[in-house]
Every structure is written in structure tokens, then in C-alpha cells.
């Protein structure tokens, strides 16, 4: 079983198919650091390899989700000493990693690798989120936000630009005009407006995390893990493909699915009128 031990700035727990990853610097509203990023990626990779995990939920300890980059890092940046820290836009995997080719180039950057994880990732935004914390959430598959919380891109009010793929992903979620509004103004919006824009789905603050974990568990127990993984890759690959390439890929994936155990189980549980017992194979 993959290891979830030895973390200092995050915490993890696996329960009934759901791995909950908690950003764990509550005294700093879970502000992002280089150490947190390394632990975050290690935990995601462990969950990806763990056959007992079908979904990942990311949340924050205490009253915040992630307040953005740690202010000590931003202050260092004003002195020209921020290279290599939590604000640097290095490819995921580090400088020594082999350069990916083809579509995989798009999944090699900070946070974009989340799109390639073949398990759904739910951002459970329990409190304020800003800057790099929001960028991370943009690359999760689903964003749920507790009612009455605040969200901001923050960059323009710090003299910065749309970092970490935000200028690419945000328009694809909320549309061009809304993305320009949120990025250029860096204004703060509440959960209800974020939901109207299609950026998040709102849920009551009471019992918020348990509700998101329940959704993740329900969805991934009712559907084939293999199908979920293939569909996720189809959708994100499709952002970089033309229709012809996407269609050909779907046809090939459909033929391959006929030979899977999950296809056999999908037909069997329907005909037998019972709950599915998918294996992901």
C-alpha cells in the first residue's frame, strides 16, 4: 500500500474509497509553501497508485482553504530571491524530469498534472481561497464551496499576473468575460456569486466536508473506476485535440472497454438488478 506518512504541512486520511488531503497550516490560513507543494504532490501520487482510493477530496484545516502563497515568500520575491519557491512556475516533476512529448506536455506543469490523475479530484473549499490556492482548485475536477466564503484571484492587486495556468483554465470554466473580470480586478466574490458564474457548487457550511466526501463516495461507488479514468482523460485531452482526433480516440477506447471486467460487471449488475461490484479492471 502507498505511504501517506511523514507529512508536516498536509494531512491525509483514507476512508471507504475516498482519500481526504487537508492543507494543514491553519495558523497561516494554509498559505502555500514549497514544502506543502512537495507533500501535496507526493500524496496525490500515492492516492493515484492506491487501488483502495477511488476519489480524492482536497480541503483546508481550520477556517481557511488556502490564502495563497505564504507572504514570507512574496516578500522574498520583492528582493529578487523567490526563485525555486512556491511562486515559481516550474514544470511538475522538477528540472531533471524527462521532457514529455505530444499531449503529455500539457500535463507536465504545476497543477496541470492533476488533470491526468485517473481519479476524480474534488476541491472542498471550506474557507477563504486566493491566488495560488485558487489556481490549484481550478485544476481539480470539481469545486465545492461552503456558503458564505470568499474567493479572489489576488494577482493583479499584488502587481503580479495570472499565474500557474489560471489564464488558460479559468476562461474554460467561467467564460472569457468573467475570467477577465476576476483576473483583472482581483476583486473578492462570495460563494453565491462564484456559483452563479459556474466556478463552484455551493453547499451549506454545516457538515460541508462530510457532504463533499459523501458525494465523492457515492459517485465513484456507483460508476466504474475504469470508465471514470478514461472519461476524465478523454475530456481533458479533448481540450487540446480537434474533433477528428477526439472521435478516433473515443472509438478506440470504446472497443477496449468491451474487453474490460467492468463492462461485464456493468451489464451483469443491471440485468440482475443489484448494486455494482466494479473492480476498475
What radius of gyration results from the CA coordinates? 19 Å
CATH superfamily of the largest domain: 2-enoyl-CoA Hydratase, Chain A, domain 1
Give unreliable regions as ranges.
none
Strand content: 5-15%
Q: Which sheet architecture does the biggest sheet show? A: 6 strands, mixed
Give the second-level CATH assignment, the architecture of the largest domain: Alpha-Beta Complex
Structural class: alpha/beta
Named CATH topology of the largest domain: 2-enoyl-CoA Hydratase, Chain A, domain 1
Distance between the termini: 18 Å
How much helicity do the residues have? 40-55%
According to DSSP, the number of beta strands is 9
Order of helices and strands: EEHEHEEHEEHHEHEHHHH
The overall number of domains is 2
Number of helices: 10
* Major sheet strand order: 1-2-3-4-6-9
Shape, principal axes of CA atoms: globular
Overview features:
single chain; 281 residues; alpha/beta; 2-enoyl-CoA Hydratase, Chain A, domain 1; 2 domains; 6-stranded mixed β-sheet; 3-stranded mixed β-sheet; 9 strands
Would you mind describing this structure in some detail?
Helix 4 packs across helix 5 (176-185) and helix 8 runs antiparallel to helix 9. The chain has helices at residues 34-49, 71-78, 131-138, 166-174, 176-185, 191-196, 208-222, 225-238, 243-257, 261-272, and strands at 10-15, 18-23, 55-60, 121-125, 129-130, 142-146, 150-152, 189-190, 201-203. The mean pLDDT is 89. It has two domains: 10-221, 2-enoyl-CoA Hydratase, Chain A, domain 1 (Alpha-Beta Complex), CATH 3.90.226; 224-272. It is built from ten helices and nine strands. The longest helix has 16 residues, at 34-49. The two termini are 18 Å apart. The radius of gyration is 19 Å and the shape is globular. It has 281 residues and is an alpha/beta fold.
Amino acid at each position: 500500500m502507498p505511504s501517506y506518512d511523514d507529512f508536516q504541512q498536509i494531512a491525509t486520511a483514507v476512508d471507504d474509497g475516498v482519500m481526504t488531503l487537508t492543507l494543514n497550516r491553519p495558523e497561516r490560513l494554509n498559505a502555500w509553501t514549497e514544502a506543502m507543494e512537495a507533500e501535496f504532490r507526493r500524496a496525490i501520487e500515492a492516492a493515484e497508485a492506491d487501488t483502495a482510493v477511488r476519489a480524492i477530496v482536497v480541503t483546508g484545516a481550520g477556517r481557511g482553504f488556502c490564502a495563497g502563497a505564504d507572504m514570507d515568500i512574496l516578500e522574498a520575491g520583492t528582493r529578487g530571491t523567490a526563485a525555486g519557491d512556491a511562486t515559481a512556475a516550474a514544470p511538475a516533476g522538477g528540472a531533471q524530469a524527462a521532457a514529455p512529448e505530444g499531449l503529455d506536455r500539457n500535463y507536465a506543469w504545476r497543477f496541470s498534472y492533476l488533470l491526468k490523475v485517473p481519479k476524480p479530484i474534488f476541491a472542498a473549499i471550506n474557507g477563504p481561497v486566493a491566488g495560488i490556492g485558487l489556481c490549484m482548485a481550478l485544476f481539480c475536477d470539481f469545486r465545492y464551496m461552503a456558503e458564505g466564503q470568499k474567493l479572489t484571484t489576488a494577482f493583479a492587486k499584488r502587481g503580479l499576473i495570472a499565474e500557474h495556468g489560471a489564464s488558460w483554465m479559468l476562461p474554460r470554466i467561467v467564460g472569457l468575460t468573467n475570467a477577465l473580470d476576476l483576473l483583472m480586478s482581483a476583486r473578492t466574490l462570495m460563494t453565491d456569486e462564484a456559483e452563479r458564474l459556474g466556478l463552484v457548487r455551493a453547499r451549506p457550511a454545516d457538515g460541508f466536508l462530510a457532504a463533499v466526501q459523501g458525494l465523492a463516495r457515492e459517485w465513484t461507488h456507483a460508476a466504474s473506476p475504469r470508465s471514470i479514468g478514461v472519461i476524465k482523460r478523454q475530456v481533458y485531452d479533448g481540450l487540446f485535440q480537434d474533433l477528428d482526433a477526439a472521435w478516433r480516440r473515443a472509438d478506440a477506447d470504446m472497443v477496449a472497454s468491451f474487453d474490460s471486467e467492468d463492462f461485464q460487471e456493468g451489464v451483469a449488475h443491471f440485468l440482475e438488478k443489484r448494486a455494482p461490484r466494479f473492480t476498475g479492471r
